[in-house]
Amino acid sequence: MTADADTDTDTVDPTNTAGTASWAPGDQILWRYRGNATDRVHICRPVTVVQDTADLLAVWVAPGTACVRPLLADGTPVHQEPLATRYTKPRTTGVSPWAGTGVLKLARPGEPWSVWLFWDRDWRFKNWYVNLEEPLARWTGGVDSEDHFLDIAVYPDRSWQWKDEDEFAQAQQAGLMSAGQAERVRAAGRAAVERIESWEAPFAAGWEAWRPDPAWPVPALPDDWDRSPARIRA
Q: Which residues does the UniProt record annotate as the domain DUF402 (predicted)?
């Protein structure tokens, strides 16, 4: 199954288990994020499936992959805009290659975060990154989520630290996240910290030694990367 599946049969599955067939290693899909407080997709990364089971979806973002990312309407990269106006200025999207080394992304069904693994160019492992987000919703062309700003960096010595707390606070001030949602995100973060401190999977699962199949091509970004899958009917 590839990322340019027939749009007439696209379906969304919030449970991450039914309504779409499992993907095989080497399949190419889309890993997407909606903008906060909108249904519009503003981040899209073509990825290669490493593993897709009832317990785990693992995908690889290859170096050089053409990815969609948000930009300010004048073309300024979002991270270059001062925090006070970062979430209030008009935005658009642009396409650019994934810079640096690739990233392995791991997500368990129903969990409000995914775990990303980073390496140096010589494959020396750097760290895990817990990206707090909506549980992935599956559809025939890939998975969709919404980023929740707050993150956690986890290091090989098992230490960890909160990341982007300033962006998390500013997003609330800008009206992109209610107080109730913010508290649910904090609760998800605390649950992730419990997983880290007890050193459970995926941190103790040995993924640091994983390497991509050199025969895998870099996935292409389809023209309809922002298509809207049809909701599954009850």
A: 80-200
Residue 230: what pLDDT? Answer: 57
- β-bridge partners, 147: 133
CA 14-217-212 angle, 5° bins: 75
d(CA 175, CA 75): 23
Alpha carbons 31 and 47: distance in angstroms, whole number: 7
User: Which pair of tokens denotes residue 214?
Assistant: 């050199």
Strands 28-34 and 142-154: parallel
Query: Using CA atoms, how far apart are residues 35 and 230, in angstroms rounded to an integer?
Result: 18
Chain-centre distance of CA 124, in angstroms? 22
DSSP 99: P
d(CA 225, CA 68): 9
Convert the pLDDT of each residue in 204-216 to its tens digit.
999 999 999 999 9
pLDDT at position 18:
43
